[in-house]
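User: Fold this; tokens only.

Assistant: Input:
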Amino acid sequence: MRRLSRRRIVRTWRVAQIRFEQPTEGWTRVDLLAGLVVAEDFTIKLGLENLTDEFYATHVNSLNPFTRERIAEIGRSFYVGAEYRF
């Protein structure tokens, strides 16, 4: 099981100013996910999210109280996991 996913968000301009939301630019995030079925009910999963280490934030992210800018989403991250179904 392998999958390359792409998540694309267009520019957001409709925001709730009363909640201090700000318009945000569009962005694209690329993830690489894989899994290996070891047994019928046991799978090992690997993932690399935000492959290009894209800097992005959405209009609903919290504001930095000092700079009043959106706090960005996490950069490149890697995970390994196991799944057992019973």
